[in-house]
Amino acid sequence: MMQHLAFIKLRHWEPQIRELAAQALAAICVFDPDYTVKEILPKLIDLCLDKALHVRHGAIIGVSEILIGLSGNSAINQRDTLDKAFKSLSIKEIQLLDQSDYRGKFAEIYNKLST
């Protein structure tokens, strides 16, 4: 289920489907946090720099919702892993902002996400 949401539905052409998939990932990631952190999160962080706009958007909201879902679960102590994820995401964000194609529709979506 997590694989399908993360790598199929987060790439959907319709933004509302991507947003719903990300919210669903946040809700179910607490059931298997180790798998989420080791398998899903790194791949989604890498997809944040994909050339396709809809893939980037889905990856960014997927990562953000997973981090929100994991941080809200007091049963797991993933502080080091979450810190690493935030650092990796920060590096990817800098690379994303440095890309010359950061303008237009993606800038609008990215600015919406960052507020």
Features:
0% strand; mainly alpha; 115 residues; 73% helix; globular; 6 helices
Characterize the structure shown.
This protein is an all-alpha fold. It has helices spanning 2-7, 15-28, 33-47, 53-71, 79-98, 105-114. The chain has one domain (2-114). The chain contains six helices and no strands. Helix 4 (53-71) runs parallel beside helix 6.
Which secondary structure elements does this structure contain, and how are they paired or packed?
Blueprint: H1 2-7, H2 15-28, H3 33-47, H4 53-71, H5 79-98, H6 105-114
Number of domains: 1
What summary fits the major beta sheet? Answer: none
Model regions low in confidence, pLDDT < 50 over at least 5 residues: none
Give the percentage of residues in beta strands: under 5%
Instruction: Please tell me what the overall shape is.
Output: globular
Q: What is the arithmetic mean of pLDDT?
A: 78
How would you concisely characterize the structure shown here?
The protein is an all-alpha fold. The protein contains six helices and no strands.
